[in-house]
Each structure stands twice: as C-alpha cells, then as structure tokens.
Amino acid sequence: MGFVAPVMAAAAPYLAGASMVTGVAGAVMQGEAAAQSADYMAQVARNNQMIARQNANMVLEQGSSAEEAQKEKTDAQIAQERAAYAAMGIDPNSGSALGVRRSTAELGELNAETIRYNAGVQAWNDVNQANSYGAQSQLYQSQAGWDTAGSILGGASTVSNKWLNWQLMNGGGGGAAGNPLGSSYDDYYTLNSSGGVA
Q1: N or C, which end of the chain has less CB nearby within 10 Å?
Q2: pLDDT digit string (tens) for 152-184?
Q3: Whose CA is closest to 52, among 142, 143, 137?
Q4: Is residue 198 in some structural domain?
Q5: What is the pTM of this model?
C-alpha cells in the first residue's frame, strides 16, 4: 500500500494531462459536428432559395403564356361576333353590334390583366421566399463559423481550467504542497489570527 501512493502521485500530472487532452478533443469534435450540421442546413437553405427563384421565373413564363392565350381567345370571340352580325345583315361596326364587340374586347383585356397581375403576385411571393432562404443560409453559415471558433475557444478554456485546478490541488505557484492557496495564504492567515495587519 505504501508503494501505490508514490506511484499515483507521480502519475497524477500525466493523468491530468490526458484528461485535459480528452476534454479538448471532445470540445473540438462537438464543435466540428455542430459546424457540419450548420453547413448542411445552409446548403439546404441555398437549394430552397434556388428552387424558389426557379418557381418565380416559371410562374412569370406561365402567366405570360396564359395572358397571350386569353388575348387570342378574346380576338377569336370578337371575330365570331363580327361574322355573326354580318351574316344577319347587321353592320358590325356601328350601333349595338359595335358596343357588344367593345364590351367583349374590354372584358377580354380585363381577364388578361388579371392573369398577368396574379402571376406577378405569385412571382413576387416566390422571390421573397428565395430572399428569406438566402438570409437563412447566411445565418447557418455564420453559425458554422461560430461553432468552429467556439469549439477552439472552449477547448482552450478547458485546458486552462484543468491546468489551474491541477496546480491548485498540487501546490502549484510556489505554495506549500497540499495547500491550494499557497504559502501566501498561510502567511496572511497567521498574521490576521495573531492580530497583525493584513
């Protein structure tokens, strides 16, 4: 039993060092895992941003095509009305026949404008969503950097704290062994307990 204590005392610095290394490695690995997760989320947000922009372009293209189709439909309807009035012997360019054709043209134009407006609103929403995903991606990217830096600082802090604790517990800093506060504490306590000036 008398042999174990000196061996343990001699091994203590090495065990403390191993504990410090393990703590630092754990903190760094944890930080790297968090950074990789944030990088992944940033990439997902970038992909969603790209999809939202593609959706905006597709909505505008579809809206433009639908608007053109509506105008062609209106032109065809006006041509049919003209032909129908002419077949009945009514002048399609005057009177109520002309009024009907004008109403058809105005209604057709209103429908086309509604299609264009709705496509614009949807595209605007998609662009806003894309911008939101872009901001989210930047936030995740920043978080990845913070996680990496935090793991390095956390590891350094762990080493510092463990080294300080080891020194205090083993009489580091020039104090007497076994007294974590060193000989200056002994001197201070002795002076105060005997009525001396601190």
Answers
A1: N
A2: 555 555 555 655 665 666 655 444 444 444 444
A3: 137
A4: no
A5: 0.56
Nearest-angstrom CA–CA distance, 116 and 64:
7
Asked whether 39 and 144 are in contact (CB, 8 A), the reply is yes
C-alpha–C-alpha distance, residues 191 and 198, integer Å:
7
Amino acid at 145: G
Tokens of 59: 């909505």
- C-alpha 40/C-alpha 33 separation (Å) is 11
DSSP state letter for 92: T
d(CA 129, CA 131): 5
User: 30 is in which domain, residue-wise?
Assistant: 4-193
Residue 141 to residue 41: CA distance in whole angstroms: 8
For the segment 25-45, the average pLDDT, to the nearest whole number, is 76
Q: Are 26 and 33 in contact (CB under 8 A)?
A: no
Q: How far apart are alpha carbons 161 and 21 in whole angstroms?
A: 12
Domain count, the chain: 1
Q: What dihedral do alpha carbons 122, 124, 128, 129 form, nearest 10°?
A: 20
Q: Are 81 and 100 in contact (CB under 8 A)?
A: yes
